[in-house]
């Protein structure tokens, strides 16, 4: 939400980022969904002019903090991920970026699909023009 406030205040602008196109699929963290919304993450990822963001209509990834790390919950955690999230990620093209703000969500996506999900800030860091000039 801080980053989105900075965008709205004009301190972070689209011109600071690449104009190369990128499709992003976003999975929101349960804590984020329950307390507020994934909208700030979607909005910040949409800042680069040719970035398109699709919010995956998923519930919990199945990890639920440390729940999915426990041996007795592993199978259930994978079944939860298979409901919506994992099929959506597997169905994403090779050039589609998967983004998830939750640490446990990113680990669950990696374990369940083999694909690496990035935190939204990592996505935008890679999009900054100054990182391309080095």
Write the layout of secondary structure elements.
Elements: H1 2-8, E1 22-26, H2 30-35, H3 39-45, E2 51-55, H4 74-83, H5 85-91, E3 96-99, H6 103-113, H7 120-127, H8 129-132
Organism: Butyricimonas virosa
Protein name: FAD-binding oxidoreductase
Describe this structure in words.
This is FAD-binding oxidoreductase. Helix content is 45%, strand content 10%. The protein has a 3-stranded parallel sheet, with helices on one face.
In short:
With 134 residues, this protein is mainly α. The chain contains 8 helices and 3 strands; from the N terminus they run αβααβααβααα.
Quick tags:
134 residues; mainly alpha; Rossmann fold; 3-stranded parallel β-sheet; 8 helices; 3 strands
